[in-house]
Amino acid sequence: MGKQGDLTLPGDVLAVIEEFTPGEGCYELQGQVRASIIGKVFYDMINRKSNVIPEKKTFVYKLKKTKYVYGLVTSLKEDYAVVSVSSLEERFVSPSITGYLHISQVSQKHVKSLRDAVRPSDVIKAKPLSFTYPLQLSLRGKDLGVIVASCSVCGTVMLKVDEEHLRCPNCGNVETRRVGPYSVKGNGNRG
């Protein structure tokens, strides 16, 4: 349930029908009042209505000005990764925005398998290519790619070996990634 003034996205649950009826920018689905637009939550306590007021400068406008985003790879399919975007440049967003990274947007070079570039639980720095949901992301660029990764064998944070390889300091496992401005340097310190 949202709080007064919170930013909300389409589909977010704002209330149950017993508490509030749907007002502007809302709809009812299976007893829940949900947002139908991006905006700020406004609860009309007198008329018992949930409303979503669109922002003057919409969220999409903010996305259009964004040069890069940070996100967590949540799952991999055969040719794309699902990413939970939590930051537009240095501004955190809550709730996170769903994005996807197609294998064709990983590198300028041919990539055989998406697992050679990113894996679940990797934190990436990516460029948004679209401004609709889900966000289409790209790692094609000098300062884009995986910035923190965990070992797929033991879960330890990996260290950067070179521009394409990471090594686990715990078990010695070496993995390939589309390494970006990696945060954990070879000596184990954050850079």
Concise structural overview:
The protein has 191 residues and is mainly beta.
Radius of gyration from CA coordinates: 20 Å
Treating each run of at least 4 consecutive H or I residues as one helix, how many helices?
A: 1
| Proportion in helices | under 10%
Q: In this structure, how is the largest beta sheet organized?
A: 5 strands, mixed, barrel
One letter per element, helices H and strands E, the order comes to: EEEEEEEHEEEEEEEEE
Mean pLDDT score, rounded?
85
List low-pLDDT spans. Answer: none
Annotation, overall tally of beta strands? 16
* Helix/sheet category: mainly beta
Tell me the span between the first and last alpha carbons.
38 Å
Strand order of the largest sheet: 8-9-10-12-11
Strand-residue proportion: 35-45%
| Tertiary shape | elongated
What can you tell me about this protein's structure?
The protein has 191 residues and is mainly β. It has one helix at residues 59-64; strands at residues 7-8, 13-16, 21-22, 26-29, 32-35, 39-44, 49-53, 69-76, 80-88, 91-102, 123-128, 135-138, 145-148, 159-160, 165-167, 174-176. The strands form 4 sheets. A 5-stranded mixed β-barrel has the order 8-9-10-12-11. A hairpin with a 3-residue loop joins β8 and β9. The chain is elongated and about 60 Å long.
List keywords for this structure.
41% strand, 1 helix, 16 strands, mainly beta, four-stranded mixed beta sheet, 191 residues, five-stranded mixed beta barrel
